[in-house]
Amino acid sequence: MALLEVKNLVTKFPTRTGVVKAVDGVSFFLNHGEILAVVGESGSGKSVTSLSIMGLLQEPGYVSGGSITFDGTDLLALTNKNMERLRGQKLAMIFQEPMTSLNPVYRVGDQIVEAIQTHMSMKKNEAWERAVEMLRVVGIPSPEDRARDYPHQMSGGMRQRVMIAMALSCNPQLLIADEPTTALDVTIQAQILDLIYKLRDDYNMAVLFITHDLGVVSEVADNVVVMYCGQVVEQAGKIALFEKPLHPYTLGLLNSIPRLEDEKSNRLYTIRGTVPNPLDMPQGCPFSDRCEKCFNRCLKERPKLMSVQGDPTRKVRCFLYDQQEALPSCK
Ligand SMILES: Nc1ncnc2c1ncn2[C@@H]1O[C@H](COP(=O)(O)OP(=O)(O)O)[C@@H](O)[C@H]1O
Ligand SMILES: [Mg+2]
Q: Which of 59, 112, 180, 190 lies at a CB distance of 3.0 to 4.6 Å from 131, suitable for a disulfide?
Protein backbone atom coordinates (compact mmCIF):
# COMPACT_ATOMS: atom_id res chain seq x y z
CA MET A 1 0.00 0.00 0.00
CA ALA A 2 1.24 3.45 -0.84
CA LEU A 3 2.17 5.67 2.11
CA LEU A 4 0.36 8.65 0.62
CA GLU A 5 -2.32 8.56 -2.01
CA VAL A 6 -3.86 11.73 -3.40
CA LYS A 7 -6.83 11.13 -5.68
CA ASN A 8 -8.61 13.73 -7.80
CA LEU A 9 -7.82 16.49 -5.32
CA VAL A 10 -9.63 19.77 -6.00
CA THR A 11 -8.84 22.84 -3.90
CA LYS A 12 -10.64 26.13 -4.42
CA PHE A 13 -10.27 29.74 -3.31
CA PRO A 14 -13.40 31.84 -3.56
CA THR A 15 -12.35 35.41 -4.41
CA ARG A 16 -14.28 38.59 -5.11
CA THR A 17 -13.87 38.08 -8.85
CA GLY A 18 -14.61 34.36 -8.97
CA VAL A 19 -13.64 30.94 -7.64
CA VAL A 20 -10.00 30.01 -8.27
CA LYS A 21 -9.43 26.29 -8.77
CA ALA A 22 -5.85 26.22 -7.49
CA VAL A 23 -5.71 22.43 -7.61
CA ASP A 24 -7.78 20.81 -10.31
CA GLY A 25 -8.06 17.03 -10.04
CA VAL A 26 -4.55 16.09 -8.95
CA SER A 27 -3.69 12.42 -8.33
CA PHE A 28 -0.41 10.79 -7.34
CA PHE A 29 0.96 8.36 -4.82
CA LEU A 30 4.11 8.08 -2.81
CA ASN A 31 5.65 4.91 -1.37
CA HIS A 32 7.63 4.48 1.85
CA GLY A 33 11.14 5.81 1.37
CA GLU A 34 10.37 7.36 -2.01
CA ILE A 35 11.32 10.89 -3.05
CA LEU A 36 8.65 12.31 -5.32
CA ALA A 37 9.32 15.71 -6.84
CA VAL A 38 6.45 18.02 -7.74
CA VAL A 39 7.70 20.57 -10.24
CA GLY A 40 6.13 23.50 -12.06
CA GLU A 41 6.38 27.26 -12.43
CA SER A 42 5.20 29.60 -9.74
CA GLY A 43 1.41 29.54 -9.46
CA SER A 44 0.97 25.96 -10.69
CA GLY A 45 -0.61 24.78 -7.44
CA LYS A 46 2.32 23.01 -5.78
CA SER A 47 2.08 24.73 -2.41
CA VAL A 48 -1.70 24.55 -2.30
CA THR A 49 -1.43 20.80 -2.96
CA SER A 50 0.99 20.35 -0.07
CA LEU A 51 -0.99 22.59 2.28
CA SER A 52 -4.12 20.60 1.41
CA ILE A 53 -2.32 17.40 2.40
CA MET A 54 -1.06 18.94 5.66
CA GLY A 55 -4.46 20.39 6.53
CA LEU A 56 -2.88 23.85 6.63
CA LEU A 57 -4.90 25.66 3.95
CA GLN A 58 -5.56 29.29 4.77
CA GLU A 59 -9.10 30.64 4.64
CA PRO A 60 -10.98 30.96 2.37
CA GLY A 61 -9.28 28.02 0.63
CA TYR A 62 -10.94 24.64 0.95
CA VAL A 63 -10.72 21.14 -0.46
CA SER A 64 -13.84 20.67 -2.55
CA GLY A 65 -13.23 17.18 -3.87
CA GLY A 66 -11.08 14.08 -3.96
CA SER A 67 -9.35 12.10 -1.25
CA ILE A 68 -6.04 12.10 0.61
CA THR A 69 -5.05 8.83 2.27
CA PHE A 70 -1.96 8.69 4.45
CA ASP A 71 -0.81 5.40 5.97
CA GLY A 72 -4.35 4.07 5.57
CA THR A 73 -5.99 7.12 7.19
CA ASP A 74 -8.40 9.39 5.32
CA LEU A 75 -6.86 12.77 6.14
CA LEU A 76 -9.84 14.78 4.95
CA ALA A 77 -12.07 13.03 7.50
CA LEU A 78 -9.79 13.76 10.49
CA THR A 79 -10.77 16.30 13.13
CA ASN A 80 -8.47 19.32 13.47
CA LYS A 81 -7.16 17.89 16.70
CA ASN A 82 -6.26 14.52 15.20
CA MET A 83 -4.73 16.20 12.17
CA GLU A 84 -2.61 18.32 14.48
CA ARG A 85 -1.44 15.20 16.26
CA LEU A 86 -0.42 13.63 12.96
CA ARG A 87 1.49 16.74 11.89
CA GLY A 88 4.92 16.77 13.41
CA GLN A 89 4.56 13.14 14.38
CA LYS A 90 4.16 11.14 11.17
CA LEU A 91 3.95 14.07 8.77
CA ALA A 92 6.30 17.03 8.79
CA MET A 93 6.80 20.00 6.52
CA ILE A 94 9.59 22.47 5.83
CA PHE A 95 9.22 25.70 3.88
CA GLN A 96 11.28 28.01 1.72
CA GLU A 97 12.10 30.67 4.29
CA PRO A 98 13.11 29.13 7.58
CA MET A 99 13.30 32.50 9.34
CA THR A 100 9.53 32.92 9.18
CA SER A 101 8.95 29.50 10.75
CA LEU A 102 11.43 29.98 13.58
CA ASN A 103 10.59 32.14 16.56
CA PRO A 104 13.25 34.88 16.80
CA VAL A 105 13.04 35.20 20.59
CA TYR A 106 13.79 31.58 21.52
CA ARG A 107 17.02 29.63 21.23
CA VAL A 108 16.84 27.09 18.41
CA GLY A 109 17.44 24.20 20.83
CA ASP A 110 14.42 25.23 22.90
CA GLN A 111 12.27 25.36 19.79
CA ILE A 112 13.24 21.82 18.84
CA VAL A 113 12.62 20.73 22.46
CA GLU A 114 9.13 22.19 22.26
CA ALA A 115 8.43 20.35 19.00
CA ILE A 116 9.65 17.09 20.57
CA GLN A 117 7.65 17.52 23.78
CA THR A 118 4.45 18.31 21.86
CA HIS A 119 4.52 14.86 20.33
CA MET A 120 6.57 12.64 22.64
CA SER A 121 6.50 12.25 26.37
CA MET A 122 10.06 13.15 27.21
CA LYS A 123 11.63 15.09 30.07
CA LYS A 124 13.14 18.48 29.27
CA ASN A 125 16.78 17.39 29.59
CA GLU A 126 16.17 14.25 27.53
CA ALA A 127 14.44 16.32 24.85
CA TRP A 128 17.35 18.80 24.88
CA GLU A 129 19.76 15.93 24.31
CA ARG A 130 17.61 14.71 21.44
CA ALA A 131 17.51 18.24 19.99
CA VAL A 132 21.32 18.41 20.07
CA GLU A 133 21.48 14.95 18.50
CA MET A 134 19.13 16.04 15.70
CA LEU A 135 21.29 19.12 15.05
CA ARG A 136 24.23 16.74 14.76
CA VAL A 137 22.28 14.50 12.34
CA VAL A 138 21.61 17.42 10.02
CA GLY A 139 25.29 18.32 9.97
CA ILE A 140 25.48 21.36 12.23
CA PRO A 141 29.00 21.62 13.70
CA SER A 142 29.34 21.93 17.51
CA PRO A 143 25.63 21.23 18.00
CA GLU A 144 25.85 21.61 21.82
CA ASP A 145 26.84 25.25 21.35
CA ARG A 146 24.64 25.97 18.32
CA ALA A 147 21.56 24.76 20.20
CA ARG A 148 22.00 27.84 22.40
CA ASP A 149 21.99 30.20 19.41
CA TYR A 150 19.07 32.40 18.45
CA PRO A 151 17.87 32.11 14.82
CA HIS A 152 19.40 35.46 13.78
CA GLN A 153 22.84 34.23 14.85
CA MET A 154 22.72 31.56 12.15
CA SER A 155 23.09 31.67 8.35
CA GLY A 156 20.16 30.83 6.05
CA GLY A 157 21.60 27.38 5.33
CA MET A 158 22.04 26.64 9.06
CA ARG A 159 18.50 27.81 9.78
CA GLN A 160 17.14 25.46 7.11
CA ARG A 161 19.11 22.65 8.78
CA VAL A 162 17.49 23.60 12.08
CA MET A 163 14.06 23.39 10.44
CA ILE A 164 14.91 19.97 9.04
CA ALA A 165 16.18 18.88 12.50
CA MET A 166 12.90 20.04 14.01
CA ALA A 167 10.87 18.27 11.32
CA LEU A 168 12.85 15.06 11.85
CA SER A 169 12.85 15.12 15.62
CA CYS A 170 9.71 12.98 15.79
CA ASN A 171 10.76 10.50 13.08
CA PRO A 172 8.15 11.43 10.47
CA GLN A 173 7.27 8.89 7.79
CA LEU A 174 6.73 11.68 5.31
CA LEU A 175 8.54 14.99 4.95
CA ILE A 176 6.97 17.59 2.70
CA ALA A 177 9.67 20.02 1.60
CA ASP A 178 8.25 23.08 -0.19
CA GLU A 179 11.07 24.81 -2.09
CA PRO A 180 13.46 24.17 0.84
CA THR A 181 16.53 25.33 -1.07
CA THR A 182 15.12 28.18 -3.16
CA ALA A 183 16.33 30.95 -0.84
CA LEU A 184 19.80 29.46 -0.47
CA ASP A 185 22.93 29.93 -2.54
CA VAL A 186 23.99 27.11 -4.84
CA THR A 187 26.64 25.51 -2.60
CA ILE A 188 24.40 25.43 0.45
CA GLN A 189 21.53 24.25 -1.74
CA ALA A 190 23.61 21.23 -2.83
CA GLN A 191 24.44 20.45 0.81
CA ILE A 192 20.77 20.53 1.85
CA LEU A 193 19.83 18.27 -1.08
CA ASP A 194 22.57 15.81 -0.06
CA LEU A 195 21.23 15.90 3.47
CA ILE A 196 17.63 15.17 2.43
CA TYR A 197 18.87 12.34 0.24
CA LYS A 198 20.92 10.86 3.10
CA LEU A 199 18.06 11.15 5.58
CA ARG A 200 15.80 9.26 3.23
CA ASP A 201 18.37 6.46 3.04
CA ASP A 202 19.06 6.39 6.78
CA TYR A 203 15.46 6.56 7.97
CA ASN A 204 13.49 5.27 4.97
CA MET A 205 11.55 8.52 5.16
CA ALA A 206 9.40 9.44 2.16
CA VAL A 207 9.82 12.95 0.79
CA LEU A 208 7.42 15.06 -1.25
CA PHE A 209 9.86 17.54 -2.71
CA ILE A 210 8.35 20.66 -4.20
CA THR A 211 10.35 22.87 -6.51
CA HIS A 212 10.06 25.18 -9.52
CA ASP A 213 13.52 24.07 -10.61
CA LEU A 214 13.81 20.92 -12.71
CA GLY A 215 17.59 21.10 -12.21
CA VAL A 216 17.07 20.37 -8.51
CA VAL A 217 14.80 17.45 -9.41
CA SER A 218 17.63 15.76 -11.28
CA GLU A 219 19.58 15.67 -8.00
CA VAL A 220 17.05 14.24 -5.60
CA ALA A 221 13.95 12.64 -7.05
CA ASP A 222 13.00 9.04 -7.77
CA ASN A 223 9.79 10.02 -9.53
CA VAL A 224 8.42 13.28 -10.84
CA VAL A 225 5.04 14.92 -11.17
CA VAL A 226 4.95 18.00 -13.42
CA MET A 227 2.17 20.47 -12.65
CA TYR A 228 0.69 23.26 -14.74
CA CYS A 229 -2.33 25.39 -13.82
CA GLY A 230 -3.36 23.14 -10.96
CA GLN A 231 -3.19 19.95 -13.01
CA VAL A 232 -0.69 17.13 -13.44
CA VAL A 233 0.58 17.36 -17.02
CA GLU A 234 3.21 14.64 -16.86
CA GLN A 235 4.17 11.86 -14.49
CA ALA A 236 7.27 9.69 -14.85
CA GLY A 237 10.31 8.14 -13.26
CA LYS A 238 13.13 10.67 -13.06
CA ILE A 239 15.42 8.97 -15.56
CA ALA A 240 12.62 8.43 -18.09
CA LEU A 241 11.55 12.05 -17.71
CA PHE A 242 15.01 13.46 -18.33
CA GLU A 243 15.78 11.04 -21.15
CA LYS A 244 12.52 11.58 -22.96
CA PRO A 245 10.30 14.40 -21.75
CA LEU A 246 6.91 14.03 -23.41
CA HIS A 247 4.86 17.11 -22.58
CA PRO A 248 5.96 20.29 -24.39
CA TYR A 249 5.81 22.06 -21.00
CA THR A 250 8.25 19.56 -19.45
CA LEU A 251 10.51 20.04 -22.44
CA GLY A 252 10.33 23.80 -21.92
CA LEU A 253 11.23 23.44 -18.23
CA LEU A 254 14.16 21.18 -19.15
CA ASN A 255 15.43 23.64 -21.73
CA SER A 256 15.20 26.41 -19.14
CA ILE A 257 17.73 24.75 -16.82
CA PRO A 258 20.80 26.98 -16.98
CA ARG A 259 23.84 25.29 -18.45
CA LEU A 260 27.41 26.47 -18.28
CA GLU A 261 27.55 27.20 -22.04
CA ASP A 262 24.41 29.34 -21.75
CA GLU A 263 25.81 31.33 -18.88
CA LYS A 264 28.92 32.10 -20.86
CA SER A 265 26.96 33.30 -23.85
CA ASN A 266 24.30 34.92 -21.68
CA ARG A 267 21.64 32.92 -23.47
CA LEU A 268 18.88 31.37 -21.45
CA TYR A 269 15.81 29.65 -22.86
CA THR A 270 12.49 30.63 -21.36
CA ILE A 271 9.06 29.26 -22.16
CA ARG A 272 7.24 31.96 -24.12
CA GLY A 273 4.30 33.75 -22.52
CA THR A 274 3.14 33.48 -18.94
CA VAL A 275 0.95 31.27 -16.79
CA PRO A 276 -2.69 32.19 -17.57
CA ASN A 277 -4.89 33.97 -15.07
CA PRO A 278 -6.79 31.19 -13.25
CA LEU A 279 -10.02 33.14 -13.77
CA ASP A 280 -9.41 33.50 -17.50
CA MET A 281 -8.12 30.15 -18.71
CA PRO A 282 -7.84 29.22 -22.40
CA GLN A 283 -10.82 27.21 -23.59
CA GLY A 284 -8.75 24.21 -24.71
CA CYS A 285 -5.50 22.93 -23.23
CA PRO A 286 -4.35 25.32 -20.48
CA PHE A 287 -0.85 25.30 -22.01
CA SER A 288 -2.06 25.87 -25.60
CA ASP A 289 -1.27 29.60 -25.77
CA ARG A 290 2.37 28.96 -24.85
CA CYS A 291 2.90 25.66 -26.61
CA GLU A 292 5.21 25.39 -29.62
CA LYS A 293 3.42 22.24 -30.77
CA CYS A 294 -0.14 23.47 -30.42
CA PHE A 295 -2.57 22.36 -33.13
CA ASN A 296 -6.25 22.86 -33.81
CA ARG A 297 -7.69 20.39 -31.34
CA CYS A 298 -5.62 21.87 -28.48
CA LEU A 299 -7.51 25.16 -28.84
CA LYS A 300 -10.92 23.52 -28.47
CA GLU A 301 -10.64 20.57 -26.12
CA ARG A 302 -8.96 19.94 -22.80
CA PRO A 303 -6.71 16.89 -22.89
CA LYS A 304 -7.06 14.19 -20.21
CA LEU A 305 -4.11 12.64 -18.43
CA MET A 306 -3.38 9.58 -20.56
CA SER A 307 -1.18 6.55 -20.22
CA VAL A 308 1.59 6.28 -22.73
CA GLN A 309 1.70 3.14 -24.80
CA GLY A 310 4.21 0.62 -23.56
CA ASP A 311 4.86 2.21 -20.17
CA PRO A 312 2.15 1.96 -17.50
CA THR A 313 4.06 4.25 -15.11
CA ARG A 314 4.11 7.20 -17.49
CA LYS A 315 1.27 9.60 -17.98
CA VAL A 316 0.95 12.74 -20.03
CA ARG A 317 -1.83 15.28 -20.60
CA CYS A 318 -1.31 16.15 -24.25
CA PHE A 319 -3.10 15.36 -27.50
CA LEU A 320 0.24 14.63 -29.18
CA TYR A 321 0.11 11.28 -27.41
CA ASP A 322 -3.54 10.50 -27.96
CA GLN A 323 -3.73 7.25 -29.89
CA GLN A 324 -6.91 8.44 -31.54
CA GLU A 325 -5.10 11.48 -32.80
CA ALA A 326 -4.74 10.61 -36.45
CA LEU A 327 -3.17 13.84 -37.63
CA PRO A 328 0.24 12.89 -39.02
CA SER A 329 1.46 16.46 -38.51
CA CYS A 330 1.46 16.11 -34.75
CA LYS A 331 3.53 12.93 -34.38
N1 LIG B 1 -5.00 32.77 -0.65
C2 LIG B 1 -5.30 32.62 -1.95
N3 LIG B 1 -6.34 33.27 -2.50
C4 LIG B 1 -6.66 33.11 -3.80
N5 LIG B 1 -5.97 32.33 -4.63
C6 LIG B 1 -4.92 31.67 -4.15
C7 LIG B 1 -4.51 31.78 -2.79
N8 LIG B 1 -3.42 30.99 -2.60
C9 LIG B 1 -3.16 30.44 -3.81
N10 LIG B 1 -4.06 30.84 -4.73
C11 LIG B 1 -4.11 30.44 -6.15
O12 LIG B 1 -3.59 29.16 -6.29
C13 LIG B 1 -2.66 29.12 -7.34
C14 LIG B 1 -1.57 28.17 -6.97
O15 LIG B 1 -0.81 28.71 -5.95
P16 LIG B 1 0.42 27.93 -5.29
O17 LIG B 1 0.01 26.55 -4.91
O18 LIG B 1 0.94 28.79 -4.20
O19 LIG B 1 1.45 27.86 -6.49
P20 LIG B 1 2.95 27.34 -6.46
O21 LIG B 1 3.28 26.85 -5.09
O22 LIG B 1 3.00 26.25 -7.50
O23 LIG B 1 3.77 28.51 -6.87
C24 LIG B 1 -2.20 30.55 -7.55
O25 LIG B 1 -2.02 30.83 -8.88
C26 LIG B 1 -3.33 31.38 -7.03
O27 LIG B 1 -4.16 31.71 -8.10
MG1 LIG C 1 4.78 27.54 -3.79
A: 112
Distance from the alpha carbon of residue 5 to the mean position of ligand 2, in angstroms: 20
Q: How far is CA 20 from the centre of its chain?
A: 20
Kindly list the protein residues whose Cβ atom lies closer than 6 A to any atom of ligand 1: 13, 15, 20, 22, 40, 42-48, 58, 61, 278
Residue 154 lies in a domain: yes
- The answer to whether position 41 is within a domain reads no
Domain count, the chain: 2
Establish if 223 belongs to a structural domain: no
User: Ligand 1: which residue has its CA nearest to atom 4?
Assistant: 13
Tell me the torsion sign for CA atoms 35, 75, 316, 251.
Answer: negative
Q: Which pLDDT tens digit goes with each residue over 149-205? A: 999 999 989 998 999 999 988 889 999 999 998 888 888 888 889 999 998 999 999
Looking at all shown ligands, the one closest to residue 46's CA atom is: 1
Tell me the pLDDT of the chain averaged across its residues.
92
Average pLDDT over residues 62-71: 98
The strand pair at 206-211 and 35-39 is best described as parallel
Rounded Cα–Cα distance for residues 75 and 31 (Å): 17
Return the best residue to mutate from 47, 210, 212, 253 for the ligand 1 pocket (most ligand atoms within 8 A of CB): 47
